Automatic annotation (TrEMBL):
InterPro entries the record matches: Cation-dep_OMT, SAM-dependent_MTases_sf, SAM_O-MeTrfase
Enzyme class: transferase
Lineage of the organism: Eukaryota, Viridiplantae, Streptophyta, Embryophyta, Tracheophyta
Keyword Transmembrane: no
Annotated family: Belongs to the class I-like SAM-binding methyltransferase superfamily. Cation-dependent O-methyltransferase family.
Biological process terms in GO annotation: lignin biosynthetic process; methylation
Protein name in UniProt: caffeoyl-CoA O-methyltransferase
Keywords in alphabetical order: Lignin biosynthesis, Methyltransferase, S-adenosyl-L-methionine, Transferase
Molecular function per GO: caffeoyl-CoA O-methyltransferase activity; S-adenosylmethionine-dependent methyltransferase activity
Enzyme Commission number(s): 2.1.1.104
UniProt pathway annotation: Aromatic compound metabolism; phenylpropanoid biosynthesis
Organism: Solanum lycopersicum
């Protein structure tokens, strides 16, 4: 027999973002498996890394926070996630704007467009992962840690 010991750590600055999902979490009876941390992602990831036992133990990570710190999140995720496991980044097509000329992009979304283009280039040249850019939703990039 195999005990199901899956645990999820969810980090967000805004508790409402977690509470919005609570009805679904409760319906699926998995609330007890989720440790929600209301905090900045960087400081929480650094706290996790301060505990050596947390290094290389996570099977999966999904990143959908601010776009400015993605490279910093990536460095930390490579320490936390097991080799051979998966890190996914959301919004890596940024409403399709990563392939648009500047004139076609609304001012409000221009800054993140640049951050995401830069991050996509960074991931494409990162030899520590293999990546697949998947054009569903707003684009996700799946990284397989080598
Ligand atoms: C697009 S929403 C995604 C919400 C949810 N994580 C999901 O995947 O459905 C982006 C979330 O990132 C959170 N966020 C932005 N900057 C953050 C940071 N530095 N640390 C932690 N969370 C952050 C926001 O509060 C917001 O809830």
């Amino acid at each position: 027999m195999c005990a199901n010991i899956m645990k999820i750590i969810a980090i967000d600055l805004d508790r409402d973002a977690y509470e919005m999902e609570l009805p679904i979490i409760k319906k699926d009876n998995i609330e007890h498996k989720i440790n929600f941390i209301q905090s900045s992602a960087l400081s929480s990831l650094d706290e996790l890394l301060n505990e050596n036992d947390n290094r290389g133990i996570f099977d999966f990570a999904f990143i959908n926070a601010d776009r400015v710190s993605c490279e910093k999140y990536h460095e930390r995720m490579l320490e936390l996630v097991k080799v051979g496991c998966i890190i996914v980044y959301d919004n890596t097509l940024w409403f399709g704007t990563v392939a648009m000329t500047e004139e076609c992009v609304k001012e409000t979304i221009k800054p993140n467009k640049q951050h995401i283009i830069q991050f996509n280039k960074f991931l494409a040249s990162d030899t520590r992962v293999q990546i697949a850019q998947v054009p569903i939703g707003d684009g996700i990039t799946i990284c397989w840690q080598l």
